[in-house]
## 1
Amino acid sequence: EVLRDTHLATAAAFLQTQRGGTGNESLNLNRTSMSIERLRCFRATDRSQLALLSGLGLSIVTFEILIASAASHAIVAHTLLSLKPWIPVPTRDPELDFNLNALILLDTVNCLMYREVPIIRYEPTDEIRIDRSVGICCDFLPIMYDACLVSHKRYRATELDQLQSVFSWSGIKLKIQEWSPVEPSGFIEMYQDNEIVAMRTQASIYQNAVLLLIHRMQHPYGGIDEVGMSWSKCILSSLETCFRVTGSYPLPTFFPLLVASLEVTDHPTRQDIMGAIETRFQLVFCQFLMKMKRFLQYVWEARDSGCFLSWEQIIHATPKMFFLP
């Protein structure tokens, strides 16, 4: 009953995207509005309700992503704030863990992009987990959180804090560079070759994408471009290899593809990237992909004009958007 309206709205929006029709948009929005109100009023009274609460939030976010709503991050944040008092992360509930990890990843990636602090820091355990959203990257989530924290502090720093901030950047970059994904025993036997390639690619490109983004928070586009370009080439070549081997990109992969593409200056490669965005992702992401292409075009045109661009200039000069991981 709690999930009915948002599931119906999401299913209708999905079919509308697949078929290219208009559908009953007012009905879908009305159903989602009722679901948002349910989420706002939801007060968990015991831990057994947490999977339902997280599922409701994630279902609403899924609908918002399908229509490319800018409200998606607010819903993610509200859901995580409602869950935070109850949760050590990870939990022992597989459904709740899946919902939580997806929400944490969405929150963390958007906080990285906007230099904010995520709601929840994933705390790794001795148990090695494979997750449907983050694959073998569960223990990379807290490192991404720490990168957000350093970035936020650096963004708010005064001139007197600059030297300390340099050391903070150095520390988090070292932590990222030293990280490597841990695969559980029997990993090769448990998964098909294509799945293993996809998960290993995802781990590699996320690691390089966070390093690349930190580089651009320290140095504007047009400055020390050779370092940014080296990480960009590594990410794009890893994606291309994965596509050749498996026939698709790993998901989620939008965030690494986006930050890598911003570095590209030659027009043939830019055209290849646009072609990949248009043909290598499921149609269900079409609304987000249109925004992603506009974002890339804005940065590429600004770079072609010869001006130096800081990360803050890019983020604040473009319309607020919700970035998919």
## 2
Amino acid sequence: INAAVNVLGGQTLASIDNVGVNETSLINEQGESLTAGDGQSLNLNAASHQTVGSLAFAGSLGSAAGTAGATSVTVADRETRATLANTGVEVEGDINVDARASEAVGSMAAGFGGALLGLGLGGSAVVNVLDSTVIAETYGATLHSENLSIQARHEANVGSSVGVLSGGALAAAAVPVATTVSSGTTEALLGAAGSSTTTEVNDTISLDAVSVVQQSDIVAGMAASGSVGGAGAVSVRVLEDVTRARMLNTNMSWWSDLEIDAISRANIGSYVGSAGLGVAAAGGMSVNTNILRTTTQAEILDSQVKTSGLHLNADSVRSMDLMTLGLAGSSGGGA
């Protein structure tokens, strides 16, 4: 039995809290008021990207019995946050608050169990448990700028491949399993409950929360025996995703264009197959289960809005491509 285990976690944070940036109330050594110069801007960025490649293989060949198992496990839990809080900012350029994260996970597990005279058993499993939080936010602030942009973006690409082959003179069994449990929160937030936020933006205020998730797996098992051969293949997936762009408890002191977008994309591909071959009896069974729960919100709550143009958009697209096959062949009986 062979196993590959990967555990990743942590936080990436870019934060400005309780700071005055170019506020006119600030006085220099000469007693002059400080003001923002032309072209000044504020950029607050937090970014986190990770890539995982994992391979597990086990093989066994014996006379009376051959058994093999391979497992690949990946656990990732991290937060990426850009926060501008309790701060007065005066710039003549733009204010940009940006948080983005991505992960690419590729896992493979393969097993072979063979017995020349007896029993051959093979099993493989891939388990992925993923949790990602990406937040770009500003609250309790007074913001003076040409444009204000708050963006949060999360991209995830997860692929799993699991295969088992077994053979035995008396009996053979093969069981591959793929399990992916993932949750994600992606938020672009202007304002918060319990604090007042004021904007003095000359042109455009934009809030963008974007989540793009792609997951795929291939699960295949085959068992062949001179007597009884059975194979089963299982894929289980649970995906929960929240994408939110929100203005809350905010006062727009100046007339500005306002654009709020929450965009969610989830693309699932799952292909599961099993085949059992035996002279006396054979069985093949495949299970393909996918549970998707997504929330996509673009909203304005408890705010004073002065705008010459308002764009509010919540856009969610989910697509699934599934194939499940179970085959059995025997001169005695198949199921």
## 3
Amino acid sequence: EIIDDRTGITHLLNNIGLIHWHKAAFQKAQDHFNKSLAVAMKIGYQNVVSTVLGNLGLIYNEMTKYNTALDYFQKAFKISEEIGNRANMAINLHNMGLCYSNDYDLKNAMKYYLQSLNIFRKIGNKFGIAFTLNNIGMLYYEKSEHKKSLGCLNKAEKIAVRADLGEIIIRCRMLKAQIWRVQRKYAKSSGSLLKTIAFAKKIKMAGLMNDAIAQYVKTASEENNRSRLPNLAGYVAFLADNYKRMTADYEKCFILLALIRYDMAENKFAAAETKFTEFSRLIKRAGDKKLFVESLLIRARLNRAPVKEYRSLAEKGKKMARELGVITLLKEMESM
């Protein structure tokens, strides 16, 4: 401010906003993004205007205010298109796809991911290509089209390995392990996850390591021979301890889901019930539809008696899964 470097101020405010966003301090992030936007608009710095509008969209996406998020992404895309910033165009198309995916509009999610992927390929953005292929793989997974999903994930992982994109490598391997879990290839899934946990630890990606551990515990909970799995009890204790330090509701839900399933597999139903009460409270606040369906699945399994209530919960969950188009979860509920 002393030297009146207003372009620098816009970047600084935006970067502070990103720090708060990564800490899930969304109001503070929003405040800094809005300050950055105001300065950028005043001096006509359109590249930053586009970037900050997109960042505000990400905040609203995290808050599950999807229509508002889409409005910001569309404004950001329009400015990027006007100034010829193809990288930002692709990013905002990708974020529109992400927003539709989070709201379980899988058709529109695919539409925008493919548009984004086309631009990323034209400009040679390896991260964008790999990340978008990973997310398309997720859409195919939700639709239970596992062969197509694995095809996208293998392509994404290959690009990520060549470009040394650790985050994408981990995400691809976790989703592939998830597919193998659903296919009941438990040894393949848990073995892959153990390697992924070690890799995430090696490259110091604590958040993704935590996610991989939660997924490993969830997968282990479905295995009959859990005693063969290395360090399972240690990972369960790690998650329980780590949960206390979590701030984001969605991250807490992901950990609780794994711990609840583990307690149920170990016939610790009282402990599972206690965690489920907290899980139910968090998903209401998080507003995630798929997590709500999963909560019905857990509630049905915890309340197998009376049979009438169990069937009612299961049918409600299956109906919602069909409406959302999450066929993989629907098949899991139909097998109950």
## 4
Amino acid sequence: RYALYYGVIAVIMLGAPLSGGEFIYFQFYRMIISFIARILKLGSFALLIPVLYLMIQHRYVPAPRVTPNIAVNEKLAFARNTVPEKLDVLAVGSSMTLNNLNTEAVLDHYGKIAYLNAGAWGTGASEVRLLGSILAKKYHPKTVIVATNMMDFKKEENVLAEDSASIASYVNGSPTWFSYLRHWNAPYYLRQSESNKLRFTDPANYEYLGFDACGGATLVVPADRIDHGRFNAGPPKSELMDEERYLAFTDFAKNMRAMNIDLVVLESAYRDGLRTKENDAQQAQHVERLRAMLVPLGHTLIDANERHWPDSLYVDGSHFGKAGSKEFTAWCLGRL
């Protein structure tokens, strides 16, 4: 940055000759140019080390840091590299969509279609309004699916609130090299490349990002690796639900109708061992609120809480394993 700053000053001043043809403070210019050259040498050496490391680790190099959410970044890069210009079905949402929406079951239901699972953990109701709307405008799907649960409406900071321009630019074809340059953060790329060794290869990792051909990432967690804290985590209490997120999801539903896109919302259930009268009552209240916002717009809501889901199908309180995700997806889509 300093090199660029002083370089611009030097160019401007060097291009401003006196009437006698002499340059202002010629010796001063030489000092600036020498200073810039030293900075560039030092900067090049400092840059060379992380670049060489990332080249060696190329399989695990993170996507450009377009947003603070690593899962969203990876999914955007996946979409750019694999998705055709137009989709038939687009799925968006949190890990409920990424992990619980089973690709095989989706294709069994819809047949041979152009389909993308754009789900990413950390993408709740407010983030879906932003990311889902951008992707829908880009790919013009006939149907958008959102697998969700109460956690997506919990009070939390909107992690994508300030990234709409960056996301839209990247999705719409901003060169990858430019995106890396624009969002350059060496510690981030080095740190995430190490984490990606597990994220990209281990389906027992709860942050698994080893996408299948359509972008899904089914969790396969052996019993001895199940996190008991996560397994026993129930739905958020009513006082933690966020009115702003309900409003954001309403806006998203209206956006889809304005674009003549059918929205299908699948309300994922918590495992049977966590279902109590209190939790079921709260869940029913949440579902009715979703129904009231979706049905008048001609959208569809499928509530998986209408049946029971054995604990054996889950890898934590709300995320299905491979068999569970397939059963959940097939059951929900079968009710369309």
